[in-house]
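User: Can you predict the 3D structure for this chain?
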Amino acid sequence: MGDLTDFLEHFNFSQSDFESTGLDWDNLVKIKEDYELFQKELSPHANSLIEAFHHVKTIHSVRFRIKNPTHLIEKIIRKKIEEPERVIDINNYRTEITDLIGLRALHLFKEDWVNIHHFITANWNLQIKPIAYYRKGDSSEHIEVFKKFGCEVKEHPFGYRSVHYLVETSPDKTTYISEVQVRTIFEEGWSEIDHKIRYPYYKDNQLLSQFLVMFNRLSGNADEMGSYVQYLKKELDSRDKESKEAVEKQILIINDLKEKIKELELKPQIAKQLETNLNEILKLPTHNISNFELKLPDFSKMEMLDYSKIDLSGFSKTQLPETESKTKPVNKKKGK
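Assistant: Here is the predicted structure, written as structure tokens:
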């Protein structure tokens, strides 16, 4: 992990920041060494959780990561800076830092969350109530859904939309805590961009923040469009089913009329003309999709981006941080 000076410089901590925590560097080194041994137990446990989530049809894919030892020490320091009175030491860090195992369950449509929520709460004990993060400006109806299913709702300062669970499992005498984040694929895409560009060193950069807000709004609108398309498909499927049933009923009625015509004592020419007319009825179009009155969204009311308010001054001088991915997606559907 190197010496203290190099560590503080790498993670953008000042010496005074570190001193304010009251932490001892040698004790942090011991925590890191202990965690490196404990870390070996976490991967098999994470894989068992992933296997369980693969049985949920509404989950598109699952990602996971085991926290890096150096990043564990960074987080302990950050926690102590934010909460100086909090005690985090070698005896309790495994429970105080609750995202040593981190999983993300991704789904396509916002409505899929309810099914995933039921799966999690039915199969595991939760350390605390699920926390549903929303962006300022999200609809009150959407927020109320989270409350209805027992979530604590919090506005996220950077606009993250996600539901977080702290899942407790005890496959042996050891209790493991895993952080499970559930979000849509669009939310994941935006959060990945936001995290790689801003976290943790560019949180206050106004220029980057303005562009990341645009990404956030676009991902939210994309999720809304996904829901609308899903609704449209269900509505069209329903109308198509009704149409097919009407056609089948029409055929039955016409066939019945043909049989009754045969029983009547009609002149052959008249009987043949009636049968011809009935056959012509069968050829008529039974529905026209353009005439359906579907409940489509009012796109004119969707939030639009005002690019004129973006301040581009000094953009050419802004340096974006170099980052690299440390996790890989684990696709649920093989062969794709």
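Confidence is low (pLDDT under 50) at residues 288-292, 299-336. Residues 206-263 form the longest helix (58 residues).
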